[in-house]
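From the shared-data thread, chain only:
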Amino acid sequence: MRSLLRHFLQDARGNVAMMFAMFLGPLVVSVGGALDYSRTFTIGAEIQSAMDAGTLAAASLSQGEDPETIVRNYITAALSEHNGVLERLNVQVSSDLAINSREVTADAVISVPTLMLGLIGYDSLTLNRTSEANERVRNLEISLVLDISGSMSGSKITALRDAAEEFVGVMMDPDLDGLTSISVIPYNGGVRLPQAVINDLLPGTPNDTGCIELGVSDPVKMDLDANGYDWLDWQDNDQRNWRSSAFCPEDNEASLFLEETPSVVIDLIEDLDAGGNTGLDVATAWGARALDPVWRGRLGGDFPARPAAYDDPSTMKVLVVMTDGAATAQIRRAQNYYGNWYSYEIYSAAQARTNMADACDAAQAQGVHIYTIAFQVSGSTNRDLMRDCASRAVNYYAVENLDISAAFNSIAADLNNLRLAR
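Structure, as tokens:
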């Protein structure tokens, strides 16, 4: 008997079963609870992803549906495989719409039923998720620098007019009135300025638009102080009023700054004709000045508060420079020797290329988006100048045929995408 009792007390074969029985309940709850938490986490991630996509879609200014309907549709689609979950979902969607922005916020509370945690009194796990999205159309300042030199004559100037008009129509969408300003700077050997700028640089001048004489150090200087600039002179005639030369556009081709009315911009473009040299550096600098806040109130136009500050988060600044040739030497005043007129060079073509590169670098350093269009430009030096001016490699367009519209359309599409802040 003593021997049997000793063997019974020493026998441990049933301990595992008893221990397993003791821990089976907590083990089941733990494993099942982990599955419940994992399932709840998955559902929460799917809800968050659906809400983020839904609020982003609902915030789009191009959609006309009710934001709450859009958000709910996204969530419903995401939770379609989880039975009984949608019935426990509470979603609150709010939206704020302004003329150029829409903000959508969604808050979701959901009680996810548990499978195993109910054994210890937890019938559900509660999730809280929030999502917010906004889309804002930024103000847009565009400087459009257009080559109207002699090499642009014929079919090329016609193609340019058509392409530029289409570009203006796209960028000055009536639904975005008051947000977009366009400056158009037509140029041949120089740039003809509107009266507002003439008054600034030559105070007391009669109402005569014309071309200002700029020296070698002035073409890329952003702040041109009123310091008694002279009129560009050709064969002893000031280049103002109706007068023109290879170095000054016609009087109906004077630059237009900070305009918001499409018809006014298009009227100017329709009047563009070809003739003269290619003052690419002078024109590029004027395009950059039209975006520089130092010129606020000095350019005329429809936006007295523009150009906006460079660091204004609500404004995007764009410079589009187009040419079909090379930056030429600046040959300005003509001198009369015994009845014969002789012109003289202010600075060389090489200096003009350097000037243009400096103007592009200065604008790009201020965050200006620069696009360049080389319209049937020959020679690697000239193409490289335009390519290097662009703020990104993809912002350079080499047009080998007459389809310059494709370049302008691509720029317009890119700008419409960039001006949306999300």
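The longest helix spans residues 15-58.
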